[in-house]
Specification:
Number of domains: 1
Strand content: 15-25%
Structural class: alpha/beta
Number of strands: 11
Order of helices and strands: EEHEEHEEEEEHEHE
Radius of gyration: 16 Å
Helix content: 10-25%
C-alpha cells in the first residue's frame, strides 16, 4: 500500500496492489472508526451506498447503526419516510448534527464511485446535485438500472465526520484522476459528482486499487 495526504484539506489516498488488500484495510479502517466512536459516545453510525466494495456485515463493529444511501425502492414516499426516520434519530441524538448546516452527521459514509464519477445515486449534471435543503431525495431517471432510486444529498454526505471513497478497476482511473486533481476554474464539478464530495468538517479517504490509481498524479496529495 502507498498513501499520501495533502495539508490543505483533510484528505488521504490509500493505494493497494489488489482489491483483496484494499478490502482488508478498509475493514480495519471501519473497525477502528467504530471502536473510537463507541468509546466517545456509545454508538457508531455508518451509511453506505449499494456500490460499495465491502459488506459491513463482514466487519466486527459493535453498537452500530447502519443506513443505506440508495435503496432502489418506490421512490417518492420512500425518500420522505427515510428522511423522517433520520430526523427522528437526530432528535434523540442517535445521529449527530453538523454545526455548519444542521444536517445529520454520520460517523462514516462509505461510497463507491462509478466510471462516470457518480456517487450514491448522484449522477453527472443531475438536478439532485444542486439540492441544499433536502437530506434525502429521489430520482426517476437514473442512467443505469434501476431508473428509480433514493439517495442522500451532497450536504448530508459532506457533513459526515468521515467519508471513504472506494474505486476499483481501470475503467475508473480517469474519474479518480479528475476527482482528486487540483482546483481548476474551467472544470464543471457537476460533470463529476465525486469531485463534489468535500467534507465540511471531516476527513475524506480514498481507497484505490493499483488499476484505479493508474493515471493518478500522487503529487497532488488527493486535494481538489
Amino acid at each position: 500500500m502507498s498513501a499520501c495526504g495533502g495539508p490543505k484539506i483533510k484528505s488521504e489516498l490509500r493505494i493497494f496492489e489488489s482489491a483483496d488488500e484494499l478490502a482488508t484495510d478498509l475493514a480495519e479502517y471501519i473497525s477502528q472508526l467504530s471502536e473510537n466512536s463507541v468509546k466517545e459516545r456509545g454508538c457508531f453510525t455508518i451509511a453506505l451506498s449499494g456500490g460499495s466494495l465491502i459488506k459491513v456485515g463482514q466487519v466486527p463493529i459493535l453498537n452500530s447503526h447502519v443506513f443505506s444511501i440508495n435503496d432502489n425502492v418506490t421512490v417518492e414516499d420512500a425518500a420522505a419516510e427515510y428522511e423522517f426516520a433520520i430526523r427522528q434519530l437526530v432528535k434523540i441524538r442517535t445521529v449527530g448534527v453538523s454545526e455548519s448546516n444542521d444536517c445529520p452527521k454520520f460517523d462514516l459514509i462509505l461510497l463507491g464511485m462509478g466510471p462516470d464519477g457518480h456517487v450514491a445515486s448522484l449522477f453527472p449534471h443531475h438536478p439532485a446535485l444542486e439540492l441544499k435543503e433536502e437530506w434525502v431525495t429521489y430520482i426517476t431517471d437514473s442512467p443505469k438500472p434501476p431508473p428509480e432510486r433514493i439517495t442522500f444529498t451532497l450536504p448530508v454526505i459532506n457533513s459526515a465526520s468521515n467519508v471513504a471513497m472506494v474505486a476499483v478497476g481501470e475503467e475508473k482511473a480517469m474519474a479518480v484522476h479528475l476527482a482528486t486533481a487540483g482546483a481548476s476554474e474551467n472544470f464543471d464539478a457537476s460533470s463529476l459528482p465525486a469531485r463534489m464530495v468535500q467534507p465540511t468538517d471531516g476527513k475524506l479517504v480514498w481507497f484505490l486499487d493499483s488499476t484505479a490509481a493508474s493515471v493518478l498524479d500522487v503529487s497532488n496529495g488527493g486535494s481538489g
